[in-house]
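Collaborator request, handled under Task 6.
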Amino acid sequence: MSDHPPDGSIKLKQHSAAGRRFPLPASRKESTMSTSIRAIMLSNRRQGVSDLYTTEILARVNTFCRLDPVCYTESDLEPAGQFADVGIIFSTWGMPEMGDEAISRIFPSLRLLLYAAGSVQTFARPFLRRGIRLCSAWRANAVLVAEYTLSAILLANKGFFQTTRLTRKDYRLAQTYSQQFQGNYMARVGIIGAGSVGSLVIEALKPYQMAVYVYDPFLPAERAAELQVTPCSLETLFSSCLTISNHLANLPETRGMLDYRLFSLMQPNATFINTGRGAQVVEDDLIRALREAPGRTALLDVFDPEPPRTDSELLRLHNVFTTPHIAGSMGREVERMADYMADECERWLNDQPLEHEVTLEMLKTMA
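Structure tokens returned to the collaborator:
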């Protein structure tokens, strides 16, 4: 899963250019911590910030930072001089994209950017090029996507999705059809991409003693042995695995990688799970393959575009199960991402090793 909620999923209220004010603990309202480092919250989705950075988390941050009591948006960044002393930025979904020149002009003192969400691909590089350290809560989100995926795989290997449909029409026929599925023990499962989420899914599958096949051109042989997986081609994975789950990194070269050539290789009762990115799937090709073999099933949590078009056939096919990007953090779960970033800030201020740092090199293979 990716990590971004669908466009329009957060309705923003209108605020003044001064930003949205957040409550601070009473002891901080009159404090003048002139020797502490100044921090701000920055996001074009102010409501999202208030959902993640709760009063309790903000109170904690204020014990080690001089945090402005407002959330700024991109439109608040001029004139540039008002942020010259900012050393730390807390953000989440809606982090503005900024170029090298704008960063150096608006945030000349910035040293740490803390992103309480997953993928940083859209904005990270200019900050990293300037030597600004960047942390992301991708691990917090990855754990949730992996849990969701594990649940889907366990059900898919039992034929849950196919037999649920069939049981409504003919119970005995569904009972007979279920014999095509062999359950989870030694089931062949295909994982596309063994990055942060994919590797967590693989680890979660170990207690079930499945045969896990992996396509990942960046996976070293030693790491594959450690994960106890069989590296293979996409063709082998799609043709031999009953359940297939996509966790490809969100990169330009992975766009449209999963097409009819691969989907047509799926077994007649195979299940394809996508919690990665919708753009990696050629949706018309997937629809074609699903229509050709109605026993094939797709579980889709992401789309391209997102939300999907209202006339998309994926929303009407009986062998497609769709969800509105729920595999990652939702509800109270999003607070954990802000907690992770508060932890990282405290580590950085105490010269301790960071646990969730993202580097330029990591961006080559990260989602």
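The cover message to the collaborator said: "The longest strand covers residues 66-72. The chain has two domains: 20-136+332-364, 141-322. Please let us know whether this matches your experimental observations."
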